[in-house]
Amino acid sequence: MSLKAFHVVFVAVSILLTLVVSSWSFGNYRDGGSARDLAFGIASLLAGAGLAVYGRVFLKKFKNISYL
User: Fold this and answer.
1) What is the pLDDT of residues 6-53, one digit of tens each?
2) Torsion of the alpha carbons at 54, 57, 9 and 44, rounded to the nearest 10
3) Cα(37)–Cα(27) distance, rounded to whole angstroms?
4) CA-CA distance, 15 to 10, in Å (whole number)?
5) What was the pLDDT predicted at 51?
6) Mutual orientation of helices 3-30 and 35-61 as an angle, nearest 10°?
7) Phi, psi dihedral angles at 16 (to 5 degrees)
8) Dihedral of alpha carbons 11, 3, 56, 58, sign
9) CB 7, CB 56: distance < 8 Å
């Protein structure tokens, strides 16, 4: 597996992790949690969005390098 392929997989897994963490935090907030749970959920969503933008920029920048 090339470094590019590993990077793409790592970023994709990181985005999924931020979505899971944000849903967990929003669930805690819905069940009577504190404002900290809400803030953590929002921060996780923003981190996921940032990772998605980073992944897109990375793929555009290295489009001429193969995945092998």
Assistant:
1) 999 999 999 999 999 999 999 999 999 899 999 999 999 999 999 999
2) 20
3) 9
4) 9
5) 98
6) 160
7) -60, -40
8) positive
9) no
